[in-house]
Amino acid sequence: MNIKFEITEDGSHTLFVPERNEHYHSMHGAIQESMHVYIDAGLRHCVKSEVKVLEIGFGTGLNAFLTLLEAEKNSRKIDFTSLELYPVSITDAEKLNYAELIDPTRKEVFNELHKTGWGKWNQVALYFSLLKMRLDFSNPSNFHPENKFDVVFFDAFAPEKQPEMWTQAIFDKIAKGSVRRMLQAAGFLVERLPGPPGKREMLRAVKRSTAG
């Protein structure tokens, strides 16, 4: 896949895909967006001491890196499963500047996220293990997880750019107005939260309790 490097407003890289006319992150700030959406509103919303995370779209590895750092910061065990059909090459990944901006001492750890093998668990850090699976999740029958997940990072491209990833079957499996209705139909409680800079709002979906 043809990609181009661009700098977002917080100084961090994103990748641009000309074929889809789409960026991997918000141009208002890649790190800022990932922290706001996936760490602050997602991971930190889960209070379990051991967390199983599913990420749809490994992409640049930024979400995985921020999750690893969060796991270490809080001595909190996190098993991170990430699905990606078109992985960024290791050569391109090594050019990304996230570690330099967040913690330059962890550059090799960031690179290791991309270098670890696919289809097997890798203990990347003391509290963080990673399973990368190269598969097409637009057909959810391709994915048969052994365990349930506590947190899902749904990091697909926008619905108008990647409509095959925004179907009822997808949301049934992992658990802008049409997305809310599909999540509700799949059994989630959906709330609107303030979005990161450049986005008015975002959705957080929490699975309804089945207790009586």
Describe this structure in words.
With 212 residues, this protein is α/β, with parallel strands linked by helices. The chain has one domain (4-207): 3-Layer(aba) Sandwich (Rossmann fold), CATH 3.40.50. Helices cover 27% and strands 25% of the residues. It is built from 7 helices and 10 strands. Strand 6 (121-125) and strand 7 form a beta hairpin. Helix 1 (30-40) crosses helix 2 (62-74). The longest helix is centred in the first third of the chain and has 13 residues, at 62-74.
Strand order of the largest sheet: 6-7-5-4-8
How many distinct folded domains?
1
The CATH topology is Rossmann fold
The helix fraction, in percent, is 25-40%
Question: Compute the gyration radius: what is it?
Answer: 16 Å
The ordered H/E elements are EEEHEHEHHHEEEHHEE
Q: What does the average pLDDT come to? A: 87
Reading off the top of the CATH hierarchy, the class is best stated as Alpha Beta
Count of distinct strands: 10
Task: Give a brief description.
With 212 residues, the protein is α/β, with parallel strands linked by helices. The chain is 27% helix and 25% strand.
Please describe the topology of this protein.
Blueprint lengths: L3 E4 L5 E5 L4 E2 L6 H11 L9 E7 L5 H13 L2 E7 L6 H4 L4 H5 L4 H9 L5 E5 L2 E6 L17 E4 L13 H6 L3 H9 L2 E7 L6 E7 L5
Parallel strand pairs: 4-5, 4-8, 5-7
Antiparallel strand pairs: 1-2, 2-3, 6-7, 9-10
Helix pairs in contact: 1-2
